[in-house]
Structure to design on (258 residues):
């Protein structure tokens, strides 16, 4: 049983999808959760934190564009001063399709601005706060199998997630000695708004190439986020945990007998 009572967890992009599921899991384990998202908030709040409070948990939402360095420093500075930060889940991400020749300068920059710069800005701000507090901490980056191997037609996304993977490893070793665990989860294909761009045909083909024949739910990814945010991961530093139904280990090959 994972008990995060007394811990404060910040989840970026926590309003929906994998971030929302992670926020719910962390709250179920007893953590106070702060959801930072750039979506439009009604009266400074969003549906996920309201859902956590209705279930008896402690949650609030703050508007944040992770790609805005000054805003990140201000928002994380406020949270650190008000309640401290024990756990950060860098989940906010965007996905643009396109081969290299199809990718415009603007798309390339947008892809990196959120997935790479945003993760760097949030990690840096939280590392500073954690080091000053001197209590260690957990940082979990939501990477992707697209950062571990190429994914045809997603040049900028794959490059951004590959950068995120090695940034995670680097931070993982740089801050291990001060008790801060920086690790990543690399999901395979997950049912969320992000993957709504796949046609039923492509989706079927991708399921066929996945050893367990399924896409993940956001909750299955959130279970690994929770594990890496908990004391169960205390001796794991700079690791990338794939949660992909076996995709990275090997894809099924159909051999036709003569
Ligand atoms: N869905 C998948 O199959 C899949 C697979 C591998 C990795 N991932 C990764 O998981 C993470 C979550 O993806 P998802 O599928 O839940 O997507 P999603 O689109 O459902 O959710 C993404 C969230 O990030 C937020 N966000 C985007 N840009 C932001 C910004 N600049 N500042 C703050 N918040 C921002 C969005 O508002 C949204 O709440 C992403 O990093 C994504 O790359 C997803």
């Amino acid at each position: 049983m994972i008990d995060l009572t007394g811990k404060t967890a910040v989840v970026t992009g926590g309003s929906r999808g994998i971030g929302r599921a992670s926020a719910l899991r962390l709250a179920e384990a007893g953590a106070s959760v702060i959801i930072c998202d750039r979506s439009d908030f009604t009266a400074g709040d969003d549906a996920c934190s309201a859902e956590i409070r209705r279930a008896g948990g402690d949650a609030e939402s703050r508007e944040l564009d992770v790609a805005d360095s000054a805003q990140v420093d201000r928002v994380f500075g406020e949270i650190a001063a008000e309640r401290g930060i024990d756990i950060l889940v860098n989940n906010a991400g965007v996905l643009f399709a396109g081969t290299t020749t199809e990718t415009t300068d603007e798309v390339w920059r947008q892809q990196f601005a959120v997935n790479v710069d945003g993760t760097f800005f949030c990690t840096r701000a939280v590392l500073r706060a954690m080091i000053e507090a001197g209590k260690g901490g957990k940082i979990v980056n939501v990477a992707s199998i697209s950062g571990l191997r190429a994914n045809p037609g997603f040049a900028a996304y794959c490059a951004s997630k590959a950068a995120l993977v090695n940034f995670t490893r680097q931070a993982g070793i740089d801050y291990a000695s001060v008790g801060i665990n920086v690790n990543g989860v690399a999901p395979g294909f997950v049912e969320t708004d992000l993957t709504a761009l796949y046609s039923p045909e492509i989706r079927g083909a991708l399921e066929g190439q996945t050893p367990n024949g399924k896409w993940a739910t956001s909750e299955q990814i959130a279970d690994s986020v929770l594990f890496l945010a908990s004391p169960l991961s205390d001796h794991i530093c700079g690791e990338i945990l794939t949660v992909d139904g076996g995709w990275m280990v090997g894809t099924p090959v159909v051999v036709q007998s003569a």
